[in-house]
Structure formats: C-alpha cells, structure tokens
Amino acid sequence: MNQTRRSRPTLVVTVLALLFLFVPLGIVILFSFHATNSLTPPFEGFSFDWYREVLNDPAIRSGVSTSLRIATLTAVSTLIFGTAAAYGVSRTRGRAGGAYSALFLLPMAMPGLILGIALLSFFSSQSISLSTMTVVIAHSVFVAPVFFIIARTALDRIDERQLEAAADLGAAPGYRFRKIILPQVLPVLLAGAAMAFVISFDEFVVTFFVIGNESTLPLVIFSRLRRTIDPSINAISSLLLFVNLAFWLVALIYAIRLEARRRRDLAGQKEG
Amino acid sequence: MRSGSRLAAAAILLARKKDEHVSTQLAIENLTHRFGNNEVLTDVNLNVKRGEFLTFLGPSGCGKTTTLRAIAGFLAPTEGRILLDGQDITGLAPHRRPVNMVFQQSTLFPHLDVGQNIAFGLQIKKLSKAEIAESVEEVLHLVKLEGFERRRSTELSGGQRQRVNLARAIVNRPEVLLLDEPLSALDLKIRLDMEVELRRLHRELGATFVYVTHDQREALALSDRIAVFNDGRIEQLDTAERLYREPNSQFAASFVGDANVFAIDVVSADGDAVITSDGLRLPVKSTGEVSGPHWLVVRPEDVRFDVGQQSVEATIMDAAFRGASITYRADCAALDSSVKAEIPDNLTASTIGAQVGVSWDAQRARLLPRGDS
C-alpha cells in the first residue's frame, strides 16, 4: 500500500474541521462539571453538583422513564412489524416487490414536522386520545424505513437455494423461517431494533406533536431550556452522549465482527 | 456400510432386478412447461425404473433441469402429471415429497455444522436423538467423512462439501434421489473421484438416482440409462451403450461421444454399403430400400486409414497425440467434410499433408434419415 501524501493546506482544513466538530462537544462536557452556574469560560472549579441535581430531579427522572418505555415499545413493534414487512417484500418478485419497497421507504423522505402534523390530524380525526401509545405508533412509522433497509439487506443475503434445500428436506414454510432464515438474520434484526431504540429515545419533533400529558426526556430538556440555562443541561447532554456513545460502540463492534464472519464465510465458499 | 448391510442391499437389489419389467417407480406423463410464451418442455414422457441410475443429458436450456425441478416440486408444470409409485404427486409441495435433491452449488446451511446439516431432515421426521446420531454417523461413514460432524461448511473443501450435501440428502432414504449437476462446480480430479463414489453409493444404497448433466462423458460413465434432451424434448432414451452405438438422431449422435456425421444423398443400397449421388460407395448396414437424404454416423475410433476398394480419399490436416492413440483430422473433398479419426498409436503414424484412404466397417456405421434442412 502506498500512503497518500497530504499537502499542508489539506491538513490545516482537516484539523479545523475536526476542531469545529469536537470543541463544542468538549466544552459542553467540560462545563457539565462546572462548580458555578456559568456556561462560558473561564472554568472556575470542578464539581459533580449538576449531575447530582439532574439525577435527583423528578421531572427528568420521569422523562427518562417515559422515554425508555416508548423507545422499548418502539423497538419491539419495529422488530416485529418491520421484520414481517421486509420478509414479505424480500420474497415478492418483480415489480410488485420494488413498489412495496418504495412505499416502505417513503417516510424517510418526509420531514419529521410533516409526519408529526399528519399523524396528529389522523389521531384527532379518529378521536384517538394522545398518549405514550400514539408516540410509539408515530416513532414506529418514523424509524420503519431505517429498520426496513437493514432487515432487507440481511434477508436478501440468504440464498434462495438454501430455502429450496430446506423445503426439499421436508421443512414447511414456517419451519424454514424459524430454522434457516431467523438464525442467520437475528443478530442484524436485533441491531436494527437497537437503532430504532436509539432514534426513538432522542426523537423530538414528531414526539412534540403526538404526545399527551407526559413528557419524554427531550421534551423535558426543551422546557427546562426555556426556563433557565445552567450547566444541568450540559450534564443531561453529557449523560445522553455517554449512553449513546456506549450503545453505538457496542453496536459497531458487533457489526464489525458480523461482517468479518460473513467475509470469512464467503471466502470459504469461493475456495470450494 | 458394514458388510452385513451391504449384502442385504445387494440382495434387495437382486430382488428388484427380477421384477424390473413391472417396477416403474417414477412416471412423467405429457409434461409441458411454459415460462410466459416460452415453451421449455414439450410433452415429455418418461418412466424411471426402481433402483436405476437415469441421467438427463443435454445442452443448457434443453429442459433437463426444468424436468428435475418439476419432480422435486419446485416448479408446477403447465401440463402433465408426475407419478411416484402410481400416486399423482404433481400438486404436492416440495416438503411433502419423498424425494431429495443435491444441488449444483452447495446449499449447506452456513449457521449449522456438518452433523446438524445432515440431521436437518431427520429432525423434521421427529426421530429420536439416538437414532439421528446413529444415522448421521452411518452416512458420514458412507461418504467417507468420519469425524467431520462438528466442522462448519466453511472449513470444508469443495469436494467435501458436495459429499455432505449428498449425505444430507441420502440420510433421509429418499424414494428417488435427484442430482442436479452436482459435480459441475468441482475440479476435474475431484470430479472423477466423485464419479466413482456416486457409482459406489448407487450400488450400496440400491436407490433410484435421477441425474442431470450436460457432460456426456459423465453421463456415459455413470448411468444405466440416459435420456438425451434437446429443445424441451427427449430425443432418445436408452442405455449408455445403445445410445453410443445406435443413436436415433443426428443430435444424439453428435452430442453423445465424438462422432463424424456426414450429410449424404443415397441413391441405392445393397445391404453392406450405400451409393451416394456423388457416386461414392460408403460401407454401412441397411435393410430394405434406402434412398434420399441421410446422415451417416461414424465414431472416430472406428475410422481406419488404409487403401481399399471402399475407401475415400482424404488429406491429413492435423494430428494430436493422445497417449494411447492419435487423433487425426483429415479433409475429405468427396464427402465435403472433415473426418475425425482416432488411430491407435501402435499403427504407423501418418504425417500432415499425407494422402490417405478413409474407411470403416459397415457394422460400425449408422444411417439416419435426414430432413431437407
């Protein structure tokens, strides 16, 4: 491998871009540990006070628990319905398959704002009272395309001939799904559900329209921002960041290991 | 397999041989299949005898694989019936048919190891763990892969993988084993070894094998009978030897084995030779009145170079050394064709450019009617 030579201007631009991305993040994290309630330099002392305050705040605690509940339900419903949709489409040949695929991906092209308004008017026209359930429904619609793409990719990788072989050995359709397809795609489906969880957990716009009396964590943060600005916001943001980061890190390592195994399998197959 | 069960298998085989004339196991009746407007099978009729090794041979797109997939149930034929032991299975889903298939490409389940792959069909039949373990061990012994239970398919060579595919199919004791070009993805050396293995397995199991290949050499080496497919029809169904010696059509003659096929116009015949419109006298057995356009088929190994009354003049254009023999290609102006001849190496070598007389025994040539096209 020959190394690409970088010119000095490129290096400068790269460093500036990285600073632009990470300095604000660094400042947010730094001032979450601030001893006073100032959000701007100079840094006047270190403390865990804001974290203590945030973790003891009943509004935030209830926001976290609401968000966790909604994200979990969204992940589960996405896993079930998204898998069914992706499986159905992956087994539909020809033009119909493409059309269904486009339909399932369409919500991705829709701004959250429009989706929120559309769902709100739908719920009120059907006299469905707003609650965490309507948020779960809205989030499921919102994350469906992402999950659909992930699930399709995994399902399409399964060789049709494997299913023929299973049928030939006496496996009925349901048995084929359980014993041949599911074991091979389950890790990817779970990763997709995890992604649905993360997206749902910090979704704001759609939630804002369709939630009832309760508040999710992003909504709590938002209303708090309107009242006061102090490092407690930084503490919440940092906590979210750490949790998200951990989540992504685990998912990333998992995805890399899956990909490595798939490559090895493919290499093995080619050799034969 | 232990010698006891081998004997038993041989006994069953012998018993089956006795009533061969009545024992049609698999019958294909008037099978026609169309993909859209494209007719890929036209009125195929076929009887497979119990315990025989029958091969569908033909070029790609001739309908051989389509027929096999219809037997397995992966394809619902447009018209016709498929009968197994007299029962109509045409409408039966693949997982309800007592047949098993080995595919061209390995279809081992990547998330299961060798033992689990082989056990797949037995588990569906709800056999006990002990029975399954015993069957898996026995079949691994049969395909000479003892001790491979815990291997992943990625840890096997191509040849080993096809053995496992074979084991996974035969462990279910299928009424009919279907093989769709199972060796075509393998290297030549492994392919030849696998042919020997397949013949042995067929003998030891005594099961009916239906085999698809485009390789005529493979078909001749393996089969009891061969069905030559061409353009969605069966051209000829015969034993390997009869197919080679007595082809019924120009297609069968040129597709199975090497053949010189001369287009000739017969004016008259005297039983041992025919006279062509060009005045040539060509040795071939014939009965009754023969005249008009014909194909004359002569195998290269039956062609001799010598000087005699019935020989045709030719010029040698090419010679290729084959070890035991030399393959010559000679231009024959009188027949308006080149002649391929396989002459044993111990005969005097002819040089390129030499004039020779080409001849053959009348019994070794075959005369086939020819359309005007």
Keywords:
heterodimer, A: 272 residues, mainly alpha, MetI-like fold, 2 domains, 78% helix, globular, B: 373 residues, alpha+beta, Rossmann fold, OB fold (Dihydrolipoamide Acetyltransferase, E2P), six-stranded mixed β-sheet, five-stranded antiparallel β-sheet
Structure notes:
The complex is a heterodimer of chains A (272) and B (373). Chain A is mainly alpha-helical and 272 residues long. Chain A folds into two domains: 76 residues; 156 residues, MetI-like (MetI-like fold). In chain A, 78% of the residues lie in helices and 0% in strands. In chain A, α1 crosses α11 and α8 runs antiparallel to α11. Chain A is globular and about 75 Å long. Chain B has nine helices and 20 strands. Chain B has two domains: 168 residues, Rossmann fold; 112 residues, Nucleic acid-binding proteins (OB fold (Dihydrolipoamide Acetyltransferase, E2P)), CATH 2.40.50. With 373 residues, chain B is of the alpha+beta class. The longest helix of chain B has 18 residues. Chain B is elongated. The termini of chain B are far apart. Chains A and B meet through α7, α8 and α11 of A and β6, α3 and α5 of B.
